[in-house]
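Quick one, T. Sequence first:
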Amino acid sequence: MNKKKKQKKIYQGILIGVILWILVSISLLTNRNGDNKNNILKNISMGIDKIVMMPFTSLNKEKGKNQNESYVIQKNVNSSLQKEIEELKDVLELNRTLTEYDPVNATILSRNKSYWFNTITIDKGYKSGIEENMAVITKNGLIGKISKVYKNSSEIKLITSDDINFKVSVAVKTNDHDNYAIMNGFDSKTGYITASGIDQTTPINIGDTVLTSGLGELFPAGIYVGEVKKIKKDKYNLSKIILIKTKQNFDDIHYVTVLKVKN
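Structure tokens:
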């Protein structure tokens, strides 16, 4: 039943109810003698009143239901918007500290579910000065590099990618000393990024900060990556493998900053 037909039926019911109520009221005025008759007619009048008000009651209930559903939806929307506003504010605050670069802020356009931890696509391309191999960060540190560039979009290869050829040189800050390692893996179950190449005798501590080293000229030095959470030995017992925990939730990325070197 469409909306117009439903409204028409409601109005017809109201009209019939009003007519019945008028007829009963007249009967009450002309038959004041006889208590039993009056009681019967009063009961009938009350029943008719309920019938007359029923459409309005039904409408009010439906309205209340819609309002409640609308409130829940709006609350969720507001919460999501607030989260995105806070993330944008963090990006803008980050830009103030990147004095050596012309940071380009970008929004995530899409993400392949089959390769969730490998790549994401952003809404900025070579038209905005984006080039391959530029570092990409968020307020939480390094998340990847530009791997493909188009006119108005680009692909980011994440540091969580399963590409064995994607390696990042990092420096582990231990007691004011830099110990260099190669970041080259990710475990989606634990959320740890792995780095290897540290000599077995080199002291490394849980909680040490991991930054980009700047070696290889792929990434600028000093970008935050994460901190050491676990330390293991390789299968030959010759070097250490460190497990790094980042601050970034790679399931939840909306905005990024591409580091473009100033000319």
